[in-house]
Amino acid sequence: MEPTAQENPETTPSKQLTATIGLIATIVVVYILTTFPEFTRPADWALEWGLFHPKAIDAGQWWRIVTASVLHADIAHLAMNGFAIYIFGSLIEPALGTRQMLVLFIVSTIGTWLLSYLFLPSSSLGASGIGYGLMGACFTLILRVQWLTGNKEFLQSLRGFGLYVLIFLAWNYMDQTTVNLWGHLGGFIAGVLYGLTGIQLAKVKVEPSDS
Fold first, then answer.
1. In this predicted model, which residue has the larger pLDDT, 83 or 148?
2. Furthest-apart CA pair in the chain: how many Å?
3. What are the boundaries of each domain within the chain?
4. Fewer CB under 10 Å: which end of the chain, C or N?
5. What is the pLDDT of residues 154-177, one digit of tens each?
6. 168-176: long-range contacts at Cβ-Cβ below 8 A with a sequence spacing of 24 or more?
């Protein structure tokens, strides 16, 4: 006899990437809007559209922690962050479901800009903090699944994410002058903490079959 997994529809997550694709679509649309119609930007475009800036936050413009995460400096910036969000999102959203994924986005965003506010004296923008949050959650889930649930299949499905981590890190740190190290660290820590305390793993009931 071999075990078969009987899934509870209330606790089994969706295999769709609704949250991941939704976020990528959002940052792409925002990028188009910030360049349309002339496809040229004035020098202060990012400040007007809502980039993160400590002085603006001090002035009460807390909404910038949201808008800064969907703004990107150029197409390469957009492409790499979109790639990272898709790769890490496709690894963990099927296991978490859309609702938990959206919460992870929010937690990663808060972590990114909280540490940036505390330690970064300059302005910043981009969704890379969310990418690092997803990375941190992936790392945490590997440990939880391996040590707590013994689900080797899920562990094997996440082993390949290490290569994407290296690619993402290499691209981010090629230009040290423009990288928000504090934001990346904040996003990663937030993802790890949410992976440890906030994520509820799907419950799968395993029973023997007659085959």
1. 83
2. 69
3. 14-200
4. C
5. 556 556 666 667 777 776 666 555
6. 168/80, 168/83, 168/84, 168/87, 168/131, 168/135, 171/80, 172/80, 172/128
User: In angstroms, rounded to a whole number, what is the distance separating the alpha carbons of residues 96 and 98?
Assistant: 7
pTM equals 0.80
Please say if 128 is a catalytic residue: yes
What's the Cα-to-Cα distance from 125 to each of 46, 59, 182, rounded to whole Å? 8, 18, 12
Question: Which CATH number applies to 14-200: 3.20.20.70, 1.20.1540.10, 3.40.50.300, 3.30.465.10?
Answer: 1.20.1540.10
Total Cβ atoms within 10 A of residue 83: 16
Catalytic residue among 14, 77, 128, 211: 128
Cα distance between residue 66 and residue 23, in whole Å: 12
CA-to-CA distance for 27 and 208, rounded, in angstroms? 46
Q: Which of 22-31, 44-53, 74-83, 136-145 has the highest mean pLDDT?
A: 22-31
3-state DSSP assignment of residue 33: helix
Q: Please give the pLDDT value at position 140.
A: 87
CA dihedral 138, 142, 144, 148 (to 10 degrees): 160
Among 90, 124, 184, 209, which one carries the catalytic annotation? 184
Token pair recorded at residue 27? 């940052």
Q: Exposed, middle or buried: residue 28 (CB in 10 Å: 0-12, 13-18, 19+)? A: middle
pLDDT grade, residue 133 (50/70/90)? very high
How many CB atoms lie under 10 A from the CB of residue 34? 17
The structure tokens listed for 151 are: 């689900």
